[in-house]
Amino acid sequence: MHSGTVQPAPPAHLAFASQRRVLVVDDSRMQRRILSTLLTRWGYAVQEAEGAREALDICVTDPPDVVLSDWMMPGMNGIEFCQLFRAIPRESYGYFILLTSKTSTKEIAAGLDAGADDYLAKPISPDELRARLAAGERILGIHAELVEKNRLVTETLGQISALYDSLDRDLQGARKLQQSLIKERHRSFGASQVSLLLRPSGHVGGDLVGFFSINADRVGLFAIDVSGHGVSSALMTARLAGFLSPTSPDQNLAMTEDDFGLYDAIPPAELAATLNRVAFTELDTEHYFTLAYADLDLTTGAFALVQAGHPHPMVLRASGAIEQIGEGGMPIGLVEEARFEQVTGQLRPGDRLFIMSDGLTEAMDSTGDMLGEDGLAALLRRNAEARGPGLLEALTWDLAEFTGASDFADDVSAVLFEFDGPKAMS
């Protein structure tokens, strides 16, 4: 083994020197040669220019990392050169050091204001020059790191933007699919009619409304509001839509078939209990949902209704009176042992049954005040002359006027049943 002394590590700036190009600008050939010799010895790639004009051409065609420029030069001085140097577009940063015999604070400040990063007093001390270059290396390193981070951020933002565009297209498609869950938004049953309103607050929502025929003389009306918002809530509504299908009575949990192939409906409270049991045994989700479901007789106007955490349905009497019905109740999927109460009611010719989500009653104006049940009742009275889809559209316009926005903060949905007399016997 050979013994010997351990060589000291090179100065920090020399670790970068071989990567850096320095432009020396001075009208004195001797001064340029002295500086070039030092810089070359330290590992820098050096170019020389005897004046600012020549230096500017080099800075445009082959931008240097560091410029050492004399202050006093014929034709264009160092401050003017520095100002033009800073105006040249470039990707990386250029570190500019002024070489000057000027020592007054005011003159030095003028040089720094012109865009210079540092200055060196003549005659040049090699140790001081090396220290100033080391400081420049740190600035150039920090700038290069920031540029790289900015590039990564820009690249990531581009990827996020592309992903967002893709998600937006998917959500637009999901919105169409969710809207298609409502097969009909209006149907006439002889003298009576049912109309539906569904306005998600975003691309997709957690509200669902619908109706299905139980038999020739009865119809089931339902409104559901799944907790939360967004895609997971929308997927839950899609699953629930299958449980209350208007086109597949054999899959509809509200329906039951007798031995003769005839369909009937289970009582509303029993349906709520069934859905609650299914929520805990078949639906692997943290979501719960509220429900209002009515079994309505088209010939008599009588109805049975269950309210499971949903806002109180309203009966709009032909006289103008408005009555709240329902027992409140627990949401479905929240408490496994929950019990649900059933209420009954009677519609007379000219009366309407209105079932809505809390997106209506909890809508807020610009001051943070909620519309509430009284405010909703006032809007319904204001539009009492309108009927069917026209009433729901007018209600939506009034709600937008109340909130001051056409895009609501929560999903808005409603079922409107208008009873104009017994359905003709078939």
Automatic annotation (TrEMBL):
GO terms (BP aspect): phosphorelay signal transduction system
Cross-referenced Pfam families: Response_reg, SpoIIE
Entry-linked SUPFAM superfamilies: CheY-like, PP2C-like
Domain of life: Bacteria
GO molecular function: phosphatase activity
Segments forming domain Response regulatory: 21-137
SMART domains: PP2C_SIG, REC
Residues modified as 4-aspartylphosphate: 70
UniProtKB keywords: Hydrolase, Phosphoprotein
Identification of the protein by name: Sigma-B regulation protein RsbU (Phosphoserine phosphatase)
Species of the source: Vannielia litorea
Species lineage: Bacteria, Pseudomonadati, Pseudomonadota, Alphaproteobacteria, Rhodobacterales
